[in-house]
Amino acid sequence: RKVLSENDRIAAELRAIYERNGTLCVNFISAPGSGKTALLERTLAGFDAGRRVAVLTGDIQTDNDARRLARYGFPVRQISTGGTCHLDARMVQRGLEGWPLESLDILFVENVGNLVCPTSYDLGEKARVVVLSVTEGEDKPLKYPATFYRADLMVLNKIDLLPYVPFDAGLAHDNARRVNPQIEIVNVSCTTGEGFDAWYRWLEAQRVPVG
Amino acid sequence: RKVLSENDRIAAELRAIYERNGTLCVNFISAPGSGKTALLERTLAGFDAGRRVAVLTGDIQTDNDARRLARYGFPVRQISTGGTCHLDARMVQRGLEGWPLESLDILFVENVGNLVCPTSYDLGEKARVVVLSVTEGEDKPLKYPATFYRADLMVLNKIDLLPYVPFDAGLAHDNARRVNPQIEIVNVSCTTGEGFDAWYRWLEAQRVPVG
Ligand SMILES: Nc1nc2c(ncn2[C@@H]2O[C@H](COP(=O)(O)OP(=O)(O)OP(=O)(O)O)[C@@H](O)[C@H]2O)c(=O)[nH]1
Ligand SMILES: Nc1nc2c(ncn2[C@@H]2O[C@H](COP(=O)(O)OP(=O)(O)OP(=O)(O)O)[C@@H](O)[C@H]2O)c(=O)[nH]1
Ligand SMILES: [Mg+2]
Ligand SMILES: [Mg+2]
Ligand SMILES: [Zn+2]
Ligand SMILES: [Zn+2]
User: Fold this and answer.
1) How many Cβ pairs within 8 Å bridge chains A and B?
2) Where are the domains of chain B?
3) I need a surface site. Which of A105, A206, B119, B140 has the fewest CB within 10 A?
4) What topology does CATH give the domain B2-207?
5) pLDDT tens digits along B114-131
């Protein structure tokens, strides 16, 4: 528990910095291969060049994701955990060193591919997105409930594959809402772009200060 | 480190019991939704009714997998970790209580869906299988190397979806072998049954006592 409160202390510091600077920080969590990086790639591709956006991406090995994300012209950094199965606030804080946070409107944080551990670590984010792909099965919200319970939005990805997989999207929605009645849901395909209007709308809605 | 040696102590006990009884224990590791349960379902469906096989399946929540697997007539038990992101030897030992291990030819252990942590915990198994699905991306062996390094076989699943996904199977094979030159590979579809001959052959080959 001592370790967790140290995380929460740093997360609170980050949250205060983001709020002071009007930076929207979004934490992306999913199983390996659900399409977090693809979602961010397509999202960055849709932004105007002058948009003040940056990305931190965490993996236990390689900088593959950072390299993919760096192609869109916005600042991107790779956090290499070396073996730790989740990002924590301290890693994010270190990853942000030297970045001009005062001039950042949006900070995307792609977490390590893992449906279990990342959800336990507050990164100071304003919103959490869980990505579930139609190839994974409708019962995942029930089997990994903490991740879906603590998410603000579920992005149901790879809907282009629906004709070819035994996936009941309605059931997946129901399962997500059983675990988290407040969760919002958008259905997208990162390959075809279907559903991206709804995704952009949700994103912009997060930028509006509450109250 | 003290915790890990306790795990290794129990794993060694289990390994000795399996060897004494001639039980082949196989540990199945993958990301959530790659198809571990589907692979085991299809495998059990193909066994003669008299085969002395049993299955332990681990999840953080629900007994969905155990219920699916129980439909084939063989003994199945669910291990509910409650939150722990991997199975360890102690959980397996407890899960086996009351089972007549002397009369077991094969014990399948389905691990918690997670490409990071399960690989660090010896369960006393003879062989480790990592399941990777064609929907996850070819770079997963490089991004989660410990899991692929410590596996004896990679099952590349969902090959029925190859026409619809941007997946280079050859590259996935190369990446797996870069991390683990000794790894064996079979390509299957749990929905169509394609490739299952090779999977069964590998399984039977594990039953032959070494030397
Ligand atoms: N058919 C289809 N494939 C997709 C879609 N989105 C992503 N993919 C593919 O899914 C695979 C994994 O995508 P990634 O973006 O690497 O997934 P990720 O969640 O970032 O993976 P990790 O960071 O390793 O956890 C890649 O082969 C993508 O091309 C989609 O909408 N449809
Ligand atoms: N198209 C296709 N879908 C498959 C195949 N194998 C499994 N699936 C589907 O993939 C989804 C996940 O399968 P599961 O067997 O639950 O995967 P799992 O690895 O056991 O998942 P967890 O235990 O939760 O980690 C389900 O919707 C299956 O129907 C396949 O070969 N082809
Ligand atoms: Mg990624
Ligand atoms: Mg399963
Ligand atoms: Zn973890
Ligand atoms: Zn773990």
Assistant:
1) 105
2) 2-207
3) A105
4) Rossmann fold (3.40.50)
5) 999 999 999 999 999 999
